[in-house]
Amino acid sequence: MSFVRFEQVSLSYTEGGARAIEDVSLDIREGEFVAVVGPSGCGKSTMMKLVSGLKPPSAGYVYVNGREVGGPLSIVGMAFQAANLLPWRTTLQNVMLPMEIVEPYRSTLRSKRMEYEEMARAALKRVGLAGFEDKFPWELSGGMQQRASICRALIHKPRLLMLDEPFGALDAFTREELWCMLRDLWQQQPFTVVLVTHDLREAVFLADTVYVMSKRPGRILVRREIDLPRP
Ligand code: ADP
Ligand code: ADP
Description:
The strands form two sheets. A six-stranded mixed sheet has the order 6-7-8-3-9-10, with helices on both faces. A four-stranded antiparallel sheet has the order 2-1-4-5, covered by helices on one side. It contains seven helices and ten strands. Helix 5 runs parallel beside helix 6. It is globular, with a radius of gyration of 18 Å. Helices cover 31% and strands 26% of the residues. The chain is of the alpha/beta class. A hairpin with a 2-residue loop joins strand 4 and strand 5. The site of one adenosine-5'-diphosphate has 3 residues, from loops. It comes from Viridibacterium curvum. One of its GO terms (molecular function) is ATP binding. This is ABC transporter ATP-binding protein. Keywords: ATP-binding, Cell membrane, Membrane, Nucleotide-binding, Transport.
């Protein structure tokens, strides 16, 4: 049973216009770490929008967890190249944001709120941000902001994590630190990952399966399973 399934999916942003992606079919099983690589403009972000329900396909079908995607999904966590932390909120308050939005965590009970805050503090510890809970985004380095962003994406325990170039703006050293952090998180608490990147080395380091897309129209050129010993 696949967890994410594309059946001959195409998408045009304008009625009858050029296709951003064309005839894309793929199957992702639950717990799999998938990377999608390709040049800028090949439709990687478009695929993310389709999986997360932000865009309907122009043709074909997108299924997540056995159901056709019909709108934004709450089982998805997302992070992007820009950390997009809210500047008026502390690290802890940023990480708790999904808990204020996603139903199971919405509670007016003070004891429940305290429990969720403890969960968020524990999660920040796991991404190496213990001690930075009360800092504001501008007081954090780029790498730390991205740690907080990934922490926020995972705080409501989504079954699917979508990452769009999350390490693209970081220096090479910080990037590799965050690769290791992400791999550790994924190994501790398995969730399905779709990582969009133009860095083939990153894809091969992190993913079980790499899809290579062609530019215009975006099609899948190659699907490769990576079977390397993990350090
Ligand atoms: P990537 O993420 O691989 O850089 P995108 O999915 O952003 O690629 O874009 C794929 C193609 O669709 C590109 O040709 C891009 O210009 C076009 N495109 C993306 N978003 C829109 C949009 N909102 N309206 C029109 N065209 C778009
Ligand atoms: P990336 O390469 O990181 O996907 P882009 O610079 O291609 O980023 O796109 C940034 C945003 O602009 C995306 O939300 C994309 O959907 C939108 N976009 C891209 N191309 C077009 C386009 N031709 N017309 C309208 N919006 C677009």
